[in-house]
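Researcher: Quick one. three chains, 1093 residues in total.
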Amino acid sequence: MNREGRGATAPQSASETRPATFTGNRALDLEEGLLFEIGRQEVTGVDLDEPATFAPRLGGQERTAPLGLPGLTEPEAMRHYVRLSRMNYGIDSGLFPLGSCTMKHNPRLNERMARLAGFADIHPLQPVSTVQGALELMGELSRYLLTLTGMDAVALTPKAGAHGELCGMMAIKAAHEANGRKPTIVVVPESAHGTNPATAALLGYQVKSIPARADGTVDVEEVKKALSQDVAAIMLTNPNTCGLFEPDVVAIAEAVHAVGAYFYADGANFNAILGKVRVGDLGVDAMHINLHKTFSTPHGGGGPGAGPVVLSKALAPFAPAPALVTDGDTLRLVEQQGAVGAEQALGRMSAFHGQMGMFVRALAWMLSHGADGMRQAAEDAVLSANYIRASLQDVMSAPFATRPAMHEALFDDAWLEGTGLSTLDVAKALIDEGYHPMTVYFPLVVHGAMLIEPTESESKASLDLFIATLRDLALAAKAGEKERFLGAPHYAPRRRLDETRAARAPVLRWVKPQAIAEAAE
Amino acid sequence: MRYLPLTPEDRTEMLARIGAPSVDALFADIPADKLLADLPDLPRRKGEMEVERALSRLAARNVAAGSVPFFVGAGAYRHHVPASVDHLIQRSEFLTSYTPYQPEIAQGTLQYLFEFQTQVAELTGMEVANASMYDGSTAAAEAVLMAHRVTKRGKAVLAGNLHPHYAQTIATVSHYAEVPLLRLAPQPTGPDDVSAAIDETVSCVVVQCPDVFGNLVDLKPIAEKAHAAGALLIAVFTEAVSLGLVEPPGAQGADIVVGEGQSIGNPLTFGGPYVGLFATRAKFVRQMPGRLAGETVDAEGRRGFVLTLSTREQHIRREKATSNICTNSGLCALAFTIHLSLLGEAGLTRLARINHAAACDLADRLAALDGVSVLNESFFNEFTIRVAGHAAEVIEKLAAKGILGGVPYSRLAPDAGLDDLILIAATETSTDEDRAAYAAALKEVLA
Amino acid sequence: MSDVRYTKDHEYVRIDGDIAVIGISDYAQSQLGDVVFVELPEVGKTVKQGAEAAVVESVKAASEVYAPVSGEVVEINPDLEAAPGAVNEDAEGKGWFVKLKLANPAELDGLMDAAAYAAFVETLS
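Model:
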């Protein structure tokens, strides 16, 4: 079995003999209490002088009771958060093959650029004459996004993918309203991201689900069967959630347009086709772009993201406010619905003008890569995914492998049959090997899915070690080495957590122990 | 290319393993006539130095708030953020981690979210809070949808003194979700009489405090009226620092409290990314949108944290989800929680007093000028003046004198017929000299 | 045990005079895993056969529970809010969901008896 690059000692047997420590710490593995256990209400880590005496004008609304917020001095705060950070796995820690999340390298140049005072320290409502550089940056980002997608307009304000999806679907609803139509159905393939049906339902549409073909792609004939004058749109992810490019996408778009419906594309998997094909050429009417996936803005433990939406000529008039307009040498923002150039706009998706901090980072990534680097990134991402699939196909089962994969390699759990182990066990065993698990149990269309997205950021050596690790796990699973899986993770800051307990009696905040005791009486 | 580790030799070897003749063969499912040979309209790759030069040139064309006397607020506030906050949020393990779906290796994120939820609950005087929303305005829209779910009614009443961007965000969602909305007219001098609009058909009433003009609002009578009619009170704030000094909405009977958390821990950044705060009563928790971190134990009985009650969310419920949201604002929530931990109750209270004192001082200076009247009877760190003339022009003239003097209300609501109002914020970042300079410049502009 | 019938969606109905006690089958609870929450209808609500009557949630899934028969809700299981685990421990006993006042006894004829349901479950695995 391959133990390349691993320690020579066998840790399993060692763990039983390790003595307990007084603190519960294990050298560099440090336990950390809650802020509320280590902080004190009278302590502050920020030195501020009391203001001179003045007459308050709070109109009788002054707070009368303490809030109960603890404070930390700076050294205590540094230690608290540094210790917490060490219980996390990030892209910088190791390979992060989380399918459909595009966990690529986050360049630090982008962080530096976003912190320039000219970007970080400007207010969204200061006079536009004082933020011309910011508007120019938004214009340049828009130009890149439109060039890469072959679309006609872009709405920058959506704050993440799901928000962008809502924006795109609202634009579709607005277009139907403007045309005096009121279709009620949105067609969504079974393999879609959960956000798709959630968004359609939020807008009052009925969701009509269509099955996938045996090869994992959508059948244009199934789409045609689902289409009627009552269909508002189809929502399609391409490349799809099985990691395949939909070969019939052009025919699907034509069929959708023939009944007066629109084609919404989920852009979550844009990384695979960046610079290789323009979605506008495929007949797409609206697509959100996750800047935090394709364009490397950090995921930050679950946000913030940014989800600009590109729109076709048919939908461009329905973009939300604000819009960026050029007046000779100056740029200005049209901030109101109904103002010049935005008569049919669908309204406002949020306050202000979008996730500027993310725009700076994304543009820095685009400038760094250039046209050649972006195409290379897409090609390397696809190459790496296919390499993983080809290297593991003999020990793990890969459905739909008759087609080339795009940027993700999909496996199911057929290879685990008879082992008594599940996809989850494999994921948890990967944690012990020093990896973040792949996406598991998604897409729902295959049983026990394992979706691996290596991105373009991995060296061949890194891919080879990951492949060797999974191969070793696969052989171990088949050889009946159950303990390596069922008890996993053994070496993470925590063993498996009791999610049933968390959900049955939710504890969602810290409460003073004495308050708990009093409540129990 | 500095970010792409594969070499040409690697690529050749990998293709051989795959059994593909070329990389193009991997893209064979894309219709051949749609495949691009190149992107001729975009430039080639650039080194770090060139990118830095290009973006610095754009940044230099903006007037940074810190470089001038600065009094712009209206939903985003300039506060001093301790250096340690920005250092800590750039720790790799926070910055480059994902949503904590694998809790065993994401305890750092989960624990700070649990701490964040507790802080937000305490700050707002509520029982539970979620792990953050996109921003204050989208949190407000989600709160309205939640009120519809709780009350099984469909009509929301928006106070006239709600920030117009928030009202527009709610209006957009309400329009497309096909639920009715009643927006009252703004009352710059307050009080904004929302109580009269509450009846048995109303799901919720949305009231901001401090309101967009800076007025402090007594929420208690509104809460009583709403509850008597079976409606919920949604309290909104855009300046979280105000809670250091002002009675929390939870203590005044609010059922849902939403707000913008930017002003604690997060820079202005031209409007985003920010962090939406969302708190409610425990009995409504299953109707609440957004992610939740909860406490539990691991297989060895040690305390740990997980995302919980996730059956409310889109990836499980799909079209029956409480919301379509999947991303929150994790890193901005981290900045918020670190800054608030550093402040503590003592620091927050003092910071709030300094803000209030600065605004009181500025209001006095401006009220003394001819052609200026301060409209507010009460305020925290932001107030509204009426000027003789067109507010937008006054602001432009002040900018030409190197002073960013506030927001003309007409920029937020051009059709309100309130073209002579300026919203002015003064935080701890303004100095005596800045406030004196503002008064002197405004005097000249109005002369 | 009194007369118990089952649906293909794994709800059961136990008849006790004109009262129908409804819940999910023992097989259903074993498939769901740990039940963490049960959303129940309000007393007084009328449900139609086949319509959504409750939602049962495990950690990772939420499933609708459809009324096996029509009727008015006369009682809901008060213990499930604090102890949803009862559904796992005793699905067809103390883990019941709602009691309906039976509107149309003839609806029972279309449901499976215990033996037929056991045979049906056999075909699923």
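DSSP finds 16 helices and twelve strands in chain A.
Researcher: Thanks, that's what I needed.
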